[in-house]
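Chain A, query sequence.
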Amino acid sequence: MNPAAAAMRLRLYLDAIKFEHTIFALPFAFLGMVLAQDGWPGWRTFLWITVAMAGARTGAMAANRLIDAQIDAANPRTAERALPAGRMSRVEMLGLASAGFALLHIAAWQLNLLALALAPVAMVTVTLYSFTKRFTWLSHWMLGLADGIAPVGGWIAVRGDIGAEAIVLALVVMFWIAGFDVLYSLQDLGFDRKRGLHSVPARFGTRRALQIARGSHALTVVVLIVLGLIAPLSWPYWVGVGLIGALLIYEHALLRNDLSRLNLAFFNMNGYVAITALVFTIAGVWVA
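Chain A, predicted structure.
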């Protein structure tokens, strides 16, 4: 394969697993890292955490694409994804999943024994999430729990144990991810009901789904407050909590009467939330 064709294939792989969405969870892994160290742990730890997160995210998304291939093919919104559209084979997607999870385990081995011991648990958790929409509308919080592994992993990478702050930060991620996944699943309300798939919108309808998403995001802010108190973190962190609350309020305001703004709310606002959490928490650690 010539370099141009190889580059095109790589772009296809990255698009197939939405690699750019790593921005949602990666900052929280770094938050776990910074809180565990109470500062900067060094470039080696930083780089291996980044590799572990990229590997876990790649493996999880590739596994999700394999598990949901038939569902994606039947859904008009997802029928053009690489696997159902025939642009990638199942063998290629399996190779991506295997490579991603192998990277996760290599990175964990480079970090410490607890990280290595728990790497298979992380792998199983992020893979099994894909099955949950087949039997429970709590699948959104299962996705949040899977992503909540990120800050716990960042903490373990530094300390080799699991601290209270890491668990609280995992709850922040769980409620935040679940809230916007409820919003995102509004796109598939009719399809999910027709196929017998479980989601908050399919179970409760649009109005209640919006309310439940708001409740999950309100809990995100509540748990952020708890984190700031137990860490404890200085005044820049509290500025960040206020900004995150404002961003989440704006996200829901965008969708109040116009669900066509869903992608703007999903991609832009949640990217800003993740970066805001990272920047202001780091400042809260470093500023006395």
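The two ends are 55 Å apart (CA to CA). The chain has one domain: 22-286.
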